[in-house]
Amino acid sequence: MNKKILNYIINDVVKNRIYKFLSNRQQIIIDYFIATKKLLKLSDPKTFSEKIQWIKVYGRLERYTKYVDKYEVRDFITKTLGKEYLIPLLGVWNSFEEIDFDRLPNQFVLKATHGCAYVYICRNKETLDIHSLRNTVKKWLHENFYNKTRELQYRDCKPRIICEQYMEDESGELIDYKILCFNGLPQFIEVHTGRLLTHNADYKDLNWRKLPMSCVLGPNSNKELRKPKHLKTMINIARILSKPFPFVRVDLYYVKEKIYFGELTFTPANGLGRFEPPEVESKLGELFDLSKYV
């Protein structure tokens, strides 16, 4: 079948017209099959990806709403670590019309608070297309991210827009250090680079040694990545933030030898960004204790 026709069937017919009639469990099973071409074993999940799907159905993820809301989570970080770990906030608004762009600096980052990938990076306000940005932001605010993925932690998030200070590290971008933690213990680090171009992901152990693994959503960069000077502190921060949760990915940034909080992620890539080789998926699945969600 023609790939364009297949994508139309999946994205327009199935997702936009049929999904609204499905239960969480039904949609999650279909999404998993579309992504993996495998049947989901919810009765006996073994791999990391399967267990992510299980917690989406049975894990009561709605209790984590305040931790995934990009505005509300700032209070948790302030109380747990200190506000010095937060990227400076330039504003928070309920609608696009409330934003006074004249008061914003030349460079800034807009984010919607209630989902993933709702991000607009402005590097030069003089070239900003306000009309296009207005349409984009209004589209964000009218969406309930939960309806797309059935990740319950997003269902009750209040749609808002925040503006953060533009950040850039020595690489000329903003490298994302994502530390996967099970039962309050950091296990390994995903290092995301080239987000605006190739979007690569490399994997390091807690001593910054390269791990022989990858993800179906992004290739390794095959570059020598500089070890952050304060890596041990970053790992300890992940340990502190992950303590209340059976599993969480703690995302951090490192700019001019300062550590900044990014976000907490309970279902990375919606559980569809599978790790390779397959034995990695199985090993991570063994670390995932589903009894902690009951």
How would you portray this structure in words?
It is built from nine helices and eleven strands. The protein is of the alpha+beta class and 294 residues long. It folds into three domains: 38 residues, no CATH class; 78 residues, no CATH class; 125 residues, D-amino Acid Aminotransferase, Chain A, domain 1. Strands 7-6-5-9-10 form a five-stranded antiparallel beta sheet. Strands 1-4-2-3 form a four-stranded antiparallel beta sheet, with helices on one face. It has a two-stranded antiparallel sheet with strand order 8-11. Helix 3 crosses helix 9. The termini are far apart.
Quick tags:
single chain; 294 residues; alpha+beta; D-amino Acid Aminotransferase, Chain A, domain 1; four-stranded antiparallel β-sheet; 11 strands
Helices, strands, pairings?
Layout lengths: L2 H16 L5 H13 L11 H11 L6 H4 L4 H8 L8 E5 L14 E5 L6 E4 L7 H12 L3 H5 L11 E5 L10 E7 L2 E9 L6 E5 L9 E2 L15 H12 L4 E9 L2 E8 L9 E2 L1 H10 L7
Antiparallel strand pairs: 1-4, 2-3, 2-4, 5-6, 5-9, 6-7, 8-11, 9-10
- Global Rg: 19 Å
CATH architecture of the largest domain: 2-Layer Sandwich
Task: Tally the beta strands.
Answer: 11
**How would you state the average pLDDT, rounded?**
93
Structural category: alpha+beta
CATH topology label of the largest domain: D-amino Acid Aminotransferase, Chain A, domain 1
In a nutshell, what does this entry contain?
This protein folds into three domains: 3-40, no CATH class; 88-165, no CATH class; 169-293, D-amino Acid Aminotransferase, Chain A, domain 1.
